[in-house]
Amino acid sequence: MKSKLSLLMITKNAEELLAKSLESCRGLVDEVILVDNRSTDSTCDIAKKYGAKIYLNSEQDLGKQRAFGLKKVTNEWVLVLDADEVILEGLRREILHLKISNFQFPISKQVSNSNSQTSNYSGFYIPFQNHFLGRPVNYGGENYKKLWLFRKDAVAIEPAQVHEEFKLKKGRPGVLKHKIFHYSYRSLRQTLGKFSDYAIREARQKSKKGEKTSLKKIILYPMHMFWARFVEDKGYKDGIFRIPLDLGFAYMEFLTYFLMLFIKNKKESSF
């Protein structure tokens, strides 16, 4: 008897790609848990068509929002997706194979590390294929993995305004072979809005942790960010079309440290 799998997703005004994301999981997951931060578009209507259990929760802290959703999951195993992430056939077969085997053995050489006994695998990192303006990007910080498939009772997640992540607290991780396709940067306007939102969150988070801004950080950190992504991390190998993406990261770095000038204290901001 195969294991049951829950999909966990948090949303806010995610109508653009939500149907594509949920459709890619049809027949793969046995439950859809969607935590929505009071969307004003058709996000919830789309989710209802896919049988999602929708929970409205107003929370700007993404770590807390995911933790809230995790408590609503009823199955032992959880697959996490954002509304701009899509499962393709290769990854779908990989996860189905794991479900059939009750997550008891590796399905590829990349899953296993040194011990052939795999019954204590508690989670699996999944690699990402990011896209910028509809084209894949593979360098400059865009090639990474996330712990996006795991046992519900084996993970913990800390409060975080941005860059929240699940971490294993017991067992050991494997790594899947096939990638999640991530359409994070769909247009220049949408990408600019995304970076602006992240900068606000990052400024609040850094200030809360006690970090201070300075003229040096405001001026030099953005330049270093562009250089690190496009040159040091070989973003240029993707082609010059990605230059606006790396300029966007530089802009986010600038805006983060600039906005920190206006934070009143470590607990509250003026924006």
From TrEMBL:
<dbReference type="InterPro" id="IPR029044">
    <property type="entry name" value="Nucleotide-diphossugar_trans"/>
</dbReference>
<dbReference type="Pfam" id="PF00535">
    <property type="entry name" value="Glycos_transf_2"/>
</dbReference>
<protein>
    <recommendedName>
        <fullName>Glycosyltransferase 2-like domain-containing protein</fullName>
    </recommendedName>
</protein>
<feature type="domain" description="Glycosyltransferase 2-like">
    <location>
        <begin position="6"/>
        <end position="90"/>
    </location>
</feature>
<dbReference type="InterPro" id="IPR001173">
    <property type="entry name" value="Glyco_trans_2-like"/>
</dbReference>
